[in-house]
Write a structure and sequence with these properties.
The protein is an all-alpha fold and 391 residues long. It contains 18 helices and no strands. α1 crosses α13 and α8 runs parallel beside α16. The longest helix is centred in the C-terminal third of the chain and has 37 residues. It is globular. One of its GO terms (biological process) is proton transmembrane transport. Keywords: Antiport, Ion transport, Membrane, Transmembrane, Transmembrane helix, Transport.
Amino acid sequence: MENILTLGVISLLIVIAPFLSSVTKIPLVVTEILLGAFAFHFNFFTHSPSLEFTAHIGFLFLMFLCGLEVDLKTFKKFGGKFLKSASLYLLIIYGTALLYVFYKDLSEFYIAALPIMSLGMIMAMLKEYPKNISWLQLALNVGILGELISIIVLVILNGTYSYGLTWKLYETLFVLFAFLGVIIGIFKIADILFWWFPTLKFLAIPKDSTKNQDIRFSIMLFLSMIGIVQMLELETVLGAFLAGMILSTYFHYQKGLSEKLNDFGFGFFIPLFFIYVGSTLDLKLITSNPSLFSQTFSIILIMVTLRVIAAFIAYKNYFKSYKKTILFAFSHSMPLTFLVATAQLGKHFNAISNEEYYAFILAAILESVCLSICIKFIYTFKSNFLSQNNA
């Protein structure tokens, strides 16, 4: 009964969040996080295993939708210049983070945490901004590579802290790269198979689906890929992301499918996840521990600085605009979902203290709040300025 009441309260928060977002002009995701934080603080709902499980499903579905934005056939058309710039950008972020961690004598955990990248907030921004904006589209495309690297880093981090430098760690890495190799092989075989027999894919999702076969197949693929990676003891987010990629690459002819899945995810599961993330923030601990803020702002400052430096080196000539370059860097400075997941992993293995854990969680939330507001302000200011000039 208590679980039903909890879901009822969260459902109410999900419904009122868009109205509050419109009134306050605060981005929707930020509104959901803040609602979760205050509602939990004032005991409107409590945590339970079923809520945590449902929130995790929401997180995985968000990663599934991230994968859905990746059409490998289109991705191949970007060419070597795109890969060169993206690789330089990511290399600068990881390299600078490595130097910073050694200079400050921090835990090795920070090498994985500071450069972490996630498409979660970018996906949310795509719901608020036009997709054809150059900086946002490039942020999505580069973010795809960044998120894949982040997933691999999370798997390595999990294996390192679980098994140490033992044979089990190397076995986990072998399974990871073998699995990715098999997936690449399956993509190659599927390319040939669907080229010779293009109607085969219509057996899974007919062009004129009248019985929701598209949704049924999508959910089956989503859960099956998660189940496979779980059996291999890999990160479940990898399975969700790959499921979205498969769907986008081979079933893109089903034009309305992406919109259906987005409506399904952003209608309940994903807002529930963001509300749950807000509820993990202990407001009492934060208000009673002022030193936590200095640590939090240090994390935010270095994460933003890493991306701004890398963006200006790798993409200043591409954008030919300081504003677009900053907007691009800021959009990658909000790895909310993965930063929370990484912090939870660090806490689980005692790689970071409780204070550091809360600093990372608070940084993840404040980055999402502050930077999404900054992005909206910079973008709106630019748009209004151009409109006034045109008038």
